[in-house]
Amino acid sequence: MIIDLIVDVGSENIKIFRRGAGVVLNEPSLALVDRKAKTVSLRETGIRAKKLAADFLKEYAPVHPIKNGVIADEEIAASLFRAFFEKIDVKPAFPDVLRVVALVGCGLSYSDRRTVARVLKAAGASRVYVVDGLLGLYSFADVSRGFFVDIGGASANIGFVSAEGVTAGCQADMGGNTVNEAISYAAETRYGVIIKNQTAEKIKLASGGLNAHANSKITLNGRDGRTGEYRAVTMLAGDIAASVRSLLDNLVLLINAVLYSLPEDDYNYVCRNGFYLAGGTVNLPGLAEYLAESLRLRVLIVKEGETAAVAGGERFFEEKGMLRKMISVETKKN
After folding, report:
1. pLDDT per residue over 203-250, tens digit each?
2. 3-state SS of the chain: helix, strand, coil percent to 5?
3. What's the domain range around 42?
4. For strand 145-151 and strand 31-34, is the pairing parallel, antiparallel, or unpaired?
């Protein structure tokens, strides 16, 4: 039996699309690792690991084996992928063939791409094809060419894509968690309270985001930066929005840098048609409008933006010529 998977190798979340079944997994890239074991031993992975991390800190260490799209710990990453494959009932054994298309950041080096392929093979894949994640979005959008901005949990991928691949692109250390960090920084410096990432996430969505009225208020609980005691504080939504805008202005600079590097014909194409916005952070209220105004471009929001890339990757198996042109690394089991 041949099993085809498209895997989005994300720093925050790993998404898996199974050909013929759709998106079958979307979980944190997190593992609880036994602190005392001489070999890698995982207690929990993904969502369960995130829920239980605080309860098992003495015995198990929470580990993110993927950082900024790069495999930081091959052994733990391979164990994590193997556990995720088992979760979706993929347990390849001879004579089964498990083919995996791995979607990675467009800024990933050739060496790091080979590491991704090596890890997935260690997790049980028979064949691994490594391609730029933006190509999955390009396939999902089903256009002849286009400019894509994919903002995930830990990073943003920006690039122009055509049938020839990514013409110009970059990866930026800016994502949903970076927005949360900006909100946390505002809470600490302006209001003197230290808040958790989960609290910042709730504020990001509940405050109205970039659409919030400057004088509207939101109350939150945090730890006093001076005394360490927990207390309630009321923040102005305008302060939150200002922190997020400052961060997004840097993203706008990067988008413009990639745009200005394009050949004249492609640049004019984007000016006429706009760009595609995808990723989990696309749900931030006011984000699309702010980018449209700052860039003076039309914004086309990709439906199912968080999982669109893995869903689009299915075409790589259906159109073999397309995959052959797009892969940057290919490995097979001996």
Report:
1. 877 765 666 565 678 888 889 888 989 888 888 878 888 888 888 999
2. 40, 30, 30
3. 31-63
4. unpaired
